[in-house]
Description:
By secondary structure, the protein is α/β, with parallel strands linked by helices. The chain has 15 helices and twelve strands.
Amino acid sequence: MDALRREIAACEFPWRPETLYLGGGTPSGLDPADLRSLLQLVPGSPWIEATIEAAPGGIMREKAEAWRAAGINRASLGVQTFVQREIARTGRKHTALIVADEVALLRACGIENINIDLIAGLSGQTEQSWRDSLDWIERIAPDHVSVYMLEVDDDSRLGRELRLGGVRYGAADTPTEELTADLYEMAVERLGHMGIARYEISNFAHPGMESRHNLKYWLLDPYLGFGADAHSFDGRVRWANPESLEDYLSSGKSHSIAPAQPEERFFVGLRLTRGIRPEPAEWQRFHEPIQRFLDAGLLETDAGNLRLTGRGILLSNEVFQEFLT
Length: 325
C-alpha cells in the first residue's frame, strides 16, 4: 500500500482522469481507509465512472457505503455462475441469493451501475444450467453483463488432463469448444431480449451503460496504470511496471516502453460491435487479409465500416492474429 501510494503521489497526471478502475485480484478486500487514501491521490473526483471489482459473498453495508463515499459509483461482480454445483467448483463463496441481496445492497448505498461477470464453458455446465444463470440475470436486471468463454491453458492441470483424455479437475464434464460457443450464442440472444446489447465481444449493456473506462482501451485512448504489472499508454507508447510484487517493491520503475503499432487499431477496434473505419492507406495495406475474411464471412463492411460478423466473433482470434503478424 505504501509503494502504491508513493507511485500515485509521484505521478504528474498529464490529463484530468474521467474514469477510474480498481481491478485485478480482489480490490474489494481493501480496508476502506486504505481505499480512501488511494483514491484521494487521484485527481478528477467525482469521476464520470469509478469501478471496483468485487467477489460476491463478502459485501457488507459498511464497506459499500465506504466505497460510495470514496467516489466509487460502479461495481463489477465476479459471479461466473449462479448454479450452486458450478459455484462450488470455482471455489467461490456465494450463492445466487447472496448475489441478488448484495446487488440490492449496493444499489441502496448509491452504487447503482452494476456489472456481472459470467463464464461459459465451466466444468459441469450444461445448456440448462446456463439458462438458469441467465434467468438470474433477468431477475437481478444489471445494466451491464460480461460473458467470457473459458479458455483453458494447455499447461494448467485441467489443460493437461484434457489433452490426456483424463477425468480429474473436471475434465470429464468440461464442455467442448462447440458447446461453449453455443452457450455464448445463447447468452447473446437472451441478453438481447432483455435489452442488454452486445457492444464488444465479451461485453453487453443497456444503451448508454457501456463501460466508459474499458471503451478507452478499445478506442486506443490514453490511460495510466499503477501497481505491480500495471500497464500504461499515452497514445503513442506503452510501458509497464514490474510484474512481480517483489520487483515492484524493490524498484517500482516502469519498463517495456514500446511504440504503438498501426495494426493495433484492428486488433482492439474490431472487438467492438460497431467495428472500425479504416483509413484509405489501411484498406490498401491490409487488402489481402480483409478480402480473405470478407470472402470467408468473418468480416463485413457497412458504409465504410469494417466489423466482425457473428461467425467472425466466434473465430475472432484467427482474425486478430492476421493483423499482429
